[in-house]
UniProtKB/TrEMBL annotation:
InterPro entries in UniProt: Nitroreductase, Nitroreductase-like
Protein name per UniProt: Nitroreductase
Gene Ontology molecular-function annotations: oxidoreductase activity
Keywords in alphabetical order: Oxidoreductase
One Pfam entry name: Nitroreductase
Residue ranges constituting the Nitroreductase domain according to the UniProt record: 167-216
Taxonomic source organism: Thioploca ingrica
Length: 335
């Protein structure tokens, strides 16, 4: 009897060892795949003739000026490094003859910065003003900073926030009805208020309601069994690696993409739509296979998929317990 038990125990040890080694090796393969993608597409390359890379760099710079403009009591010596960096990028844009949205935003913010009372009479401000006159493009939107009082802030206050947050569930059965583009676009516009590192907004969302395309995508996602074919609308949420410049930002695309994903789910909930988050922690093989069959840009990292649809009158959802509050909360203290 003891001999049989020892054989079983040895067998389980071997199985566990093989399982652990498999996890380590596949994890390493996944890390290497992500690293190669960062090397191939990351913004560290700083090719400012690439309009997308240049625009991300501009947002990085002009958002720091926006923060400077928004302080009630600002340091009058701050921001000049970003001013000259933006001026250089605007010259590159003009030479390459590829003017983007953020080129126009940069120009407007520079104009506002040099017009500050403490800057307007400075010699460098006059010199920069002459340089800006060379750029014959302007933004139709307003950038920089604005007045925002308490009454504006309170418009977002919910009388019963629990009624909103605690009524969102993941739904896996929907009405046999496609959600129209108007609602999809409105939810995305609402979610775009999501914060992102230096306001780079490096998101891109792919959408389809075509059954063949949906099924092609869902074939490589292993969490939609038994309901995937009946999903009315499918979003693929991605972030652009070009927006992230340094090794310290190697995970930032996942963070920013995750923030947007949750905002999207709450935006759809606010519009009366149901959603189900579909995980995309996939193997390099599946990531590559998906990119072969649908038009996802190579520099876009897939964060997750999102099923969207109309809820039925009566539905069943998972009654998933929330962890005890004490397990997820601690007071931060010095050691």
């Amino acid at each position: 009897m003891n001999s049989s038990w020892e054989l079983i125990r040895d067998y389980m040890r071997n199985i566990n060892f093989i399982r652990h080694m498999y996890k380590i090796l596949t994890g390493f393969a996944g890390f290497m795949y992500d690293y190669k993608r960062f090397l191939a597409y990351g913004g560290w390359q700083e090719n400012m003739n690439d309009i997308e890379r240049r625009n991300y760099q501009q947002v990085y710079c002009y958002h720091r000026l926006e923060k400077s403009l928004s302080f009630k009591e600002r340091n009058p010596n701050s921001g000049w490094r970003d001013v000259y960096e933006l001026l250089n990028l605007l010259n590159i844009a003009k030479q390459s003859n590829s003017i983007g949205y953020h080129d126009k935003a940069s120009k407007q913010i520079l104009e506002k910065f040099i017009a500050l009372p403490e800057n307007i009479n400075l010699e460098q401000s006059q010199s920069i003003k002459k340089e800006l006159e060379k750029f014959d493009f302007n933004s139709n939107d307003i950038h920089g900073a604005m007045e925002y009082n308490l009454s504006h802030f309170k418009k977002g206050k919910l009388e019963q926030p629990e009624d909103f947050f605690l009524t969102r569930y993941s739904l896996r059965e929907f009405q046999d009805k496609t959600v129209g583009d108007e609602i999809i676009h409105r939810a995305i516009r609402l979610a775009m208020k999501t914060p992102s590192v230096c306001n780079r907004q490096a998101w891109h969302i792919y959408h389809t309601s075509d059954k063949e395309v949906k099924n092609s995508v869902l074939r490589y996602q292993n969490g939609n069994r038994h309901f995937g074919e009946n999903i009315p609308n499918l979003l693929v949420i991605t972030t652009d690696l070009k927006a992230f410049f340094s090794a310290t930002e190697r995970y930032q695309h996942w963070i920013d993409g995750g923030l947007l994903s949750m905002s999207l789910m709450y935006a759809f909930h606010a519009l009366g739509m149901a959603t189900c988050a579909l995980n995309w922690s996939q193997s390099p093989k599946n990531d590559k296979l998906l990119r072969k069959i649908v038009n996802i840009k190579p520099d876009h990292t897939i964060i997750m998929l999102l099923a969207v649809g109309y809820p039925d009158e009566n539905n069943k959802v998972c009654l998933s317990a929330r962890r005890p509050f004490e397990e997820i909360y601690s007071t931060l203290e010095n050691r």
